[in-house]
Fold DNA-directed RNA polymerase subunit omega.
Amino acid sequence: MMLEPSIDALQDKIKSKYTLVTLSSRRARQLSDSKNVMVDNPKSVKYVGMALEEIEAGKLYIED
């Protein structure tokens, strides 16, 4: 089973796995309330997957 997006692609955007998990879980909670996805036609039907797709697309990030 392949996970999309891959952890390698996500870690190119956000280096820390802890930060990646925290950011995606917070965004998934927001998506469950608002259903306002920032990517067109997400592949995932689950909110965490949608949040990870947003990170991969560069729409969701952590400011330095």
